[in-house]
Design brief:
By secondary structure, this protein is mainly alpha-helical. The protein contains 13 helices and no strands. It is elongated, with a radius of gyration of 54 Å.
Amino acid sequence: MSFSYFLARVGGARIDILRKLPGSVAQQAAMGAVILTTAVFAAASAAYALSVVHFASIWWCVLAGLLWGLAILNLDRLLVLGLANESGLKRNLGLAAPRVVLALIIGVVISTPLMLKIFEPEINAQMMKNNIAALEQSIAPLNTGPLQEKLTEREREMRRLQDMIAAGPTADARFLPEVQDIDKQMATKQQEIDKAKADYDKAQAEYIAESDGTGGTGVVGCADECVRKQQVADERRAIWQQKQSELQALKDQRATYATTNRATLLAASAKAIEDAKRDLPQVTKTVDSLRDAVSYAQNGTINSLQENTGIIARLKALSDVTAGNFLALMARIAVALLFIAIELLPVLFKVMQNLGKRTPYQQVSETFDEHEVARAQADASAQTAMADSEREAEVQSHAHELRGRLQWIDSAHVTSAAPGHTGPGHRGPGHSRPGDTVPLHRLPNQVE
């Protein structure tokens, strides 16, 4: 068989008819070539898709792709053969509609992986951008989350202990609980001073603006409103100065306590250093564990994003590429339509062929089909008649056998019933022997 006949057979043509119509071989071979081309694209598409998701080794992906291409080949042949030699617009459209929908689905499935391969450089670049953006979004919560906060706190504690040990015993009053309490009061008082200063600055600015006419009532000079605002500013300045005096009193108290308790401070500092030496290894170990945990979380996030190169990630990258680029979008649509058109071509070609003038191949094919149907019907009728004859002969045979048995039984009964018949040869009722005659009217109706 030549390659043209092979393609024609792939397209669903009958070789015995084509041998009688050599001029129709090219047309049928073209149909088979389209179907075979679609199957090749399907095989390549499936093999690439499986390799992207790391299904198996490249050879297993190729084998699976070939099996998928074979399945698409058989499916396309089924779609074409289902429309063979149909006439009438409505019937062709009714038969073609589900096949067109199925061909569209197959075309999309086949074209998607191939588009990913065609736009692979652009997709890889976009995937890198997407991974960087996703990494920033994933790392940000890790840097501000509870784990990172705990690590920062422990690192601060570790540095404090290290600084204390490095400084050695000191009379610094900040290590005593009483001084630490004063320090807290001083910090609170400083916040109150800052607020009082801000309130005073605001009131003073309002007073000045009212006085020179640039704010408030807009009247130059110090009228009633100006006097009121000046009083407010003076009150707030007094409050600010009072807070400053209270802070200074706390500072003096702290200095006095540090001077009068120097020996106590040295002893407390030495004890604090011993405690720090004891606690530092455990704090350091905790810091190392927390750093490892944060690093593991960050590296795991980075690795997962770097390994995210599957079909979904590539489809998203392709969508991102075409979303902001009209030229890329048109190219994507054109490629998709190309493969969809290739998949639809056999069905559409078959529909147009059925709706147009009958080709020589179709005419001869219909004649062959009618002849084969008639011959098959004749063969079926002959086989039915033969079966009926055999069944009738079998019935006649069974009837003849039954008639012989009934004759033998009836003759034996008549002989035994004759008058005066005695002696050793006497047979009682129900006994008979071969050769006795049986009246024909004693036979059953069904065997007469």
